[in-house]
């Protein structure tokens, strides 16, 4: 199992001892297409690591239609944002292709985060990597689909609605406001980004 863990780029930053600990208290399960792992508006007692297969995250629109947010595949965590804000899940996750998942009790992760600072640092780094990958997926999805006006912002808020007042205060304290002239290119495709900017 450790070899499988280390093959996933998104969680490679964890140590071998972390993988061993996760394996010792997690359970491998196989879920068939149509299985709803996470329901929007509900709390889940588990965090999942996708080992194989595919899942889809969806949100419910005002007209009760389902809007696809992203696809989830091997190496990605599911339901982990509840560790950041302890709020009900913002979207539903459904298995679309037979998936093997590692089911991890949330309370075990929470206890380890509080008692092991090294693990906490590595795990929160892992969460930031996963959130970054989801933003990339979301951006690609918006580029491929005809998104209604206002929909991009709504999608981003659904996936990243985990910041609290202290997070905003930290960004204000560590960032700087800059004015950007019209048509200034802030981010270039396939170029590394060295800082985050807020247009004012």
Summary of the model, kept short:
The chain is of the alpha+beta class.
Order of helices and strands: HHEEEEEHEHHHH
Strand tally: 6
Task: Give the proportion of residues in helices.
Answer: 25-40%
CATH homology superfamily: Jelly Rolls
Low-confidence stretches: none
Helix/strand structural class: alpha+beta
Instruction: Give the strand content.
Output: 15-25%
Number of domain units: 1
CATH class: Mainly Beta
Mind summarizing the main beta sheet? 6 strands, antiparallel
Radius of gyration: 18 Å
| Named CATH architecture | Sandwich
CATH-derived topology: Jelly Rolls
The N- to C-terminal Cα distance equals: 48 Å
What would the principal axes of the Cα set say about the shape? globular
How would you describe this structure to a colleague?
The protein has 200 residues and is α+β, with helices and mostly antiparallel strands. The protein has a single domain, classed as Jelly Rolls, CATH 2.60.120.10. 38% of the residues lie in helices and 23% in strands. It has helices at 2-6, 16-25, 82-85, 106-115, 117-144, 151-160, 165-174, and strands at residues 27-31, 36-38, 46-60, 66-72, 77-78, 92-105. Strands 1, 2, 3, 4, 5 and 6 form a six-stranded antiparallel beta sheet that branches. A hairpin with a 5-residue loop joins β3 (46-60) and β4 (66-72). It is globular, with a radius of gyration of 18 Å. The termini are far apart.
